[in-house]
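Re: that chain you flagged

S.,

Sorry for the slow reply, it's been a week of failed gels. I finally had a moment to sit down with the sequence you sent. For the record, here it is as I used it:
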Amino acid sequence: MAPVVKELKKHSDQFLCKICVTGQHRQMIDPLLELFEIEPDYDLNIMQENQNLEYITTTVLRESGKIIDQEKIDYLIVQGDTTTAMAASLAAFYRNVKIAHVEAGLRTWDKLQPFPEEVNRKIIDSVSDIYFAHTEAAKQNLLNEGVDSSKIEVTGNTVIDALLDTAKKDFDFKGSGFGKFSLNGRKTILVTAHRRENFGRPIENICQAIKKVAAQFHRGIFFVYPVHLNPNIQKPVYSILNGIENVLLTEPLEYLSLVHLMKQSYFVLTDSGGLQEEAPSLGKPVLVLRQTTERPEGVEAGCVEVIGTQKTTIVEKVTELLEDRNKYLRMSRAVNPYGDGKASERIVKRMLKESNEQSKSQHHPSNV
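Prediction finished late last night. Pasting the structure tokens below so you have them in one place:
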């Protein structure tokens, strides 16, 4: 949302823009706010130990509702498929406030893959008034569900806007903490795995596969794994992978560090949704540690491959991408279907149209 915020604030005569964050994972969000020079107007600070989905949903629903009432907003803009976005959208819907959904229309058609995001985004889309779809395929999903085409704008994804802007920023790789690890020409593989559906056996399989490949290609590769703070991830990852010479386990990285590490990587091994879109923009192939993806465009384009969470399959696919130069070149050179870095401009252009229509009757800037 950072590029959208930046673009909205270029039109202060048209929009009164209020920013709300939930404060989940404080050490992860604060550096992002600083990087993108965003000062929240509201910080719910909801993080607590062992929080569950019910707590997040009810707290965000209640607290965001209070803000909507206080600010008397005209539009709520939410992004993606988080529980936060879903709960805030319900709060707006209950108050008859219009909702604009950035990254609308993603679907796997399996309510448990990913969990709970597939249901979250369907709920958000069911109450939205404007749909900013990142691809034509996402638009078609919405049309198939009966959404009026006049309410849909295909914009590309704002994550690409943020990525390309961040990739241009200066970064001291040697002074970042990675500099002390001598790669000696080894290929760096960036790993992220943290999804709820991968808790338990799947994350254990992933780690065992990394351990085997690390031993098999000891002199040729180097894994870097920023480990999510959730104990369901921390415990198995450190139990299986800690102490392996060519596997570096780190705390979650600030976005600037993550982007520049991705630029240095040979390819990306991930269960993330966003990295499936970001890495191809930097020419990095992506192997997806999930059973299915709501981003089939990357698979169709050839820059993404879904490989699941079975140990033998992960080892096979990682090995193949390391050894098969032709496959690597095909994936790294595939055209990223997720945007050109101008999604936020298209979003705000549509919001300006909506604001102008609304201002004719209200005679004041729109609150978003």
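What I noticed first: The radius of gyration is 21 Å.

Talk soon,
D.
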